[in-house]
Every structure is written in structure tokens, then in C-alpha cells.
Amino acid sequence: MSTDVIRTQVAIIGAGPAGLLLGRLLALQGIDAVILENRSREYVEARIRAGVLEHPAVDLLTEAGVGDRLHAEGLRHDGIYLQWPGERHRIDFPKLCGRSVWVYGQTEVVKDLIDARLEAGLPLLFDISDTAIHDVETDRPRVTFTDADGVARTLEADFVAGCDGFHGVSRPTIPDHLRTTWERVYPFAWLGILAEVAPSTDELIYAWHPDGFALHSMRSTTRSRLYVQVDPSEKVEDWSDDRVWEALATRMALPGWSLQSGPVIEKSITPMRSFVSAPMRHGRLLLAGDAAHIVPPTGAKGLNLAAADVKVLFEALDSFYRTGSTALLDAYSDTALHRVWRATHFSWWMTSMLHPATGPGADPFDHQLQLSQLKYVTSSEAASASLAENYTGMPFA
Ligand SMILES: Cc1cc2nc3c(=O)[nH]c(=O)nc-3n(C[C@H](O)[C@H](O)[C@H](O)COP(=O)(O)OP(=O)(O)OC[C@H]3O[C@@H](n4cnc5c(N)ncnc54)[C@H](O)[C@@H]3O)c2cc1C
């Protein structure tokens, strides 16, 4: 096997939203980067995940010149519904905080960013393996990997951006004794389906029900994305399509409203966890997105936090290359973690309010507290404004 050496300014590990968006912003400023991805292009473009973009994330994608399809095909939502048995209430975002959110699948964001990068002829290597990071405590860090043809390669860079998600190699490169982690594993999971059926609602419905939480989301005017709270030990094979539709119809029932079912094209169970690792920088290795933190999906924050990290990281790298100053790089971890903890709290709060304990361990006292919180948040303008400004996204730092 031969070893080829490639030289770049920023080595980006991971072609998820974080790595691709960072590569795009750097390219617009003429800063070289190579993006390494261990999956195929087809796999990355088909991975069904997030679907709600915060207002500041939409602004960032638009400024980065990858917002055309988002604005043409994405659905702007000016609110969400919160529901409990017998009642459904709308939270009006523009009225409460002057912002909105956009429903546009993460798959589409990723496709737009990959198209832009490949059209510009910039390096994005899929199907690599054996990724390893070296010498991040020096000013000449390296990433070694095996390319799609089985050739062992070395990428030499000024910086390594660890955008390789929760299971990547970047975070474990930071020695254990220098890292602090915080974690909350929730005692429930989401069973999600993607269905070829027009949404039965104009905006997302978050429903509390004694059987468990349910969410009606969507990906387009013809595709619905729906979730039910299940025990983390549940097996997806035990949930037939009919059983999922029945659970959804029960938990979201409202007089005068009905749920349209249709062919299910994807079904999976996602565990729920909050996780933060700090610092987000070690020497010349900088973490962004799920590589450093995970939130439960209830607050629709994961993809948006990845975009927020990337904006801060891009500005720090841009400042370094323009002025030679490391001030913003030195501040990167603290600046990013400020928003990370706000989103971590909001996601935990939404999750705690909407997911009742079920089965023999269910405590009716907790249920009453959740219902009281829901009634307060939908009746107090101050409480609904707090939800609205967190959900639509605080302005980026
Ligand atoms: C079911 C579900 C629903 C969600 N809903 C929402 C939502 O509504 N709103 C929201 O904002 N967020 C949501 N999220 C979270 C969101 O999808 C993630 O936060 C987002 O993908 C983070 O982007 P990222 O680029 O940091 O990481 P990732 O998307 O995980 O990308 C990391 C990339 O690195 C690659 N990689 C990993 N290891 C290596 C390696 N060793 N070498 C090279 N490449 C590597 C991976 O293949 C991947 O392509 C949801 C997540 C799930 C699972």
C-alpha cells in the first residue's frame, strides 16, 4: 500500500450538516478544506433525521448561498400546536417573538450542501475508513485514513474540525482527563415513521396523552413524519403499521379532527438522551455538532445547534486566517457551549413536559404537574413567548 500526503488548511471529518456547512462557509472565504466521510454519498443523502430549521439556521444557509431550494420547497411554519386530551392550543411564533421555523428535511440540507461542494470542484471524499487524528497539540495536525480505493493517505492541515457525530473518532481523541461530560438518558424512546400521506395538520402537533407522547410532523406537502413515545426496550418488529397508526390516532384524538394514514416508507426507534462534552477544543482539534453534544429531538435543536457551532467556528477560523489572531479560536469552546447549554435546557424542558411515565411506575402526581405546565405555557403570554423564542432559535452569537 502506498501513502499519499495531501496538504490543506482545515481537515474536516464528517459530511453531515456540520462538516458540509463548515466546508461551504470556508470555501466562500477562499479557505481550503478537505472533507472526509466514511459512508457513501447515497447513504449520507438518504439518512432520515431532523426536519425543523430554526430561523437563524435558515438565514445562515441562505447567506451561504444554499437556500434556493429551501425557500422554494421548504414550508415556513409560524407556530406549533400543543395538545392534551380534549384540547389543542396554538403557539403563534411571529406574534410572540417575530420569528418562524422552516420544515425542510436534513436530507435535503445535506443534498444541497453536497451539490454545492461538488459543483465547485472541491474535495469531498466518501467511503473512507481507518480515520485517525494525530498531533493536535502541535501546529501541524494530521489525519490518516484509507481512501475508497484502499490507498493509505495522510491529510496534513493547520486545524482539524471534528464534525463526525456522536460515534466519531474526534471526541475520543481528547484525553479523558481533559474532558468533562454530562449525560441524561431518558426512560423512553421515539418510534418514528415516515409515511407517503399528506399531513393531517398545517403545523406540528405535540400531544401529551396518558398512553405516551405523540408528534405529528411532516417533510413536505405529501410526506408525513410521525412519532410515538415507546419504552426503549421495544422492538420495531413488534410495531406493525396498523399498531402505530392506532396509537397515533388515540394519542392525538380531538373532536372534529382526524388523522389520515398512508403507506409507511421508514420506521425506526430512537433512544432519547442529553449529552454534553467539554471543552469543544483541544489544541488544533475543534469539535462541532453531535461530536460534542446530543439533545433529545423534542425541541428540534440538534441540526440547528450543529449550524450554530459551525457559525462560531467559521468566524474563528476566518479571523485567524485574515488577521493571525487566535482570540476567537481561544474563545470558541466557551462561546459555543453557551448556546449548547441553553438548547440542552430547552430540549430537556420540552421533553419533561410532554412525556408522561406510563405503566405501573406512572405517578399521577407527575401527570398533573405536566398538564399544569402545558396549561400555563398555552395561556400565559410570557410563558408562550419563552417557548417561542427558544423554539425558533435565539439569534446566533
Ligand atoms: C430521529 C432523529 C430526529 C431528529 N430530529 C431533529 C429535529 O427535528 N431538529 C433538529 O435540529 N435535529 C434533529 N435531530 C438531530 C440531528 O439529526 C443531528 O443533531 C445532526 O445530524 C447533527 O449533525 P452533525 O453534522 O453534527 O452530525 P451527523 O449528522 O451525525 O454527521 C456526522 C458525519 O460524520 C461521519 N463520520 C462518523 N465517523 C466518521 C469517521 N470516523 N470518519 C469520517 N466520517 C465519519 C458520519 O457518517 C456522518 O456523516 C434528529 C436526530 C434523529 C436521530
Word description of this protein:
The protein has 397 residues and is an alpha/beta fold. Helices cover 37% and strands 27% of the residues. The protein has twelve helices and 21 strands. Strands 7-6-15-16-17-14-18-21 form an eight-stranded mixed beta sheet. A six-stranded mixed beta sheet has the order 9-3-2-13-20-19. Strand 19 and strand 20 (285-287) form a beta hairpin. Flavin-adenine dinucleotide (FAD) binds at residues 13-19, 36-39, 44, 49-52, 106, 131, 163-165, 168-169, 192, 270, 289-290, 297, 300-304, 306. Flavin-adenine dinucleotide binds next to helix 1 and helix 9.
Which helices and strands occur, and which strands form pairs?
Layout: E1 3-7, E2 10-13, H1 17-28, E3 33-36, H2 41-46, E4 52-54, H3 55-63, H4 68-73, E5 75-77, E6 79-84, E7 87-92, H5 93-97, E8 101-103, H6 106-119, E9 124-125, E10 129-134, E11 142-146, E12 152-156, E13 159-162, H7 170-173, E14 180-195, E15 205-207, E16 214-218, E17 224-230, H8 241-251, E18 264-278, E19 281-282, E20 285-287, E21 293-294, H9 302-323, H10 327-354, H11 364-379, H12 381-392
Parallel strand pairs: 1-12, 2-3, 2-13, 3-9, 6-15, 13-20
Antiparallel strand pairs: 4-8, 5-8, 6-7, 10-11, 11-12, 14-17, 14-18, 15-16, 16-17, 18-21, 19-20
Helix pairs in contact: 1-6, 1-9, 9-10, 11-12
Bound molecules: flavin-adenine dinucleotide.
Flavin-adenine dinucleotide is lined by residues 13-19, 36-39, 44, 49-52, 106, 131, 163-165, 168-169, 192, 270, 289-290, 297, 300-304, 306.
